[in-house]
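Side project, low priority. Logging it here so it doesn't get lost.
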Amino acid sequence: MCHLQHGYMTVSFTYEDLLFGSQPHNRLLFFTRYIRGQKVKCKRILIDGGSAINIMPKPTMNDLGIELSKSRMMTHDFNLEDQRAIGMIRLELAISDLSTTSILLLIDSKTSYKSLLGRPWLYDHGVVASTLHQCLKYYCDGEKKINGDVKPFTKAESYFVDARFFGENAPVKETMRATGKRSEEDTHGMINGGPSGNVKQSRPSEKETSKPLSPLLK
C-alpha cells in the first residue's frame, strides 16, 4: 500500500483516457470493490460527486452480514422527502489498487447501486472521477487510473432504470419533437434572417406594416 497524495497535484483527462473513445454515451460511473480485507466482492459501486454522503442500502448490508451503529442523520431523496439513516458503519474498501477506509450511512431502500461513494470519499482520498471518461484518477507514487465497469448490470438486473444506459441500444441524449406547422427550413430562415439568408426578406412587407391595429392595441 502506498501513501495517497492530494491537495497539490494536478490531474488531467485526455482523449486517450476515454474508455469508449469517440463513441457517445450517457453512463453512470460504476466500479467493483472489495470489502473487509479483500474477502467480500461487491459490484456496482456508484461514484457520485453530487452526493454529500456515502450510502449503503439495507439489502447490501444484509448480503454482507454487517452490524451497524445507530445514526440520527436525515437524508433527502430526489423528491426532497426525508429519510432517516438506520445506521452507519466504517468499512475498509478496495477498488483495484486503491485501498481506503470510509464511513457509510445505511438506508432502508432498494437502489440500482450496491453502495454509493460521494464527495466525502472523493475529497478525503484525493480522487477525481470523470463520468465522461468512465474512469477515476488519484496520486499514489505517481498518477494512477482505474477504469469503470463496462457491464455493471446482469441480464437479470436489466429491470433497473439505470441499466438501460449500458445496453447495446442505450439512449445517448434526450430528444424533443418540434411542435406546430413551422418547417425546419422556416426555422433556419428565421435564424439566418430569412428563407434565403437575406435579412431583408425576413422583414414585414409595406402592406403588413400599414394594416390597422387591433382595438386592443390602440
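Brief comment: The chain has two domains: 15-166, 177-203.
Revisit when time allows.
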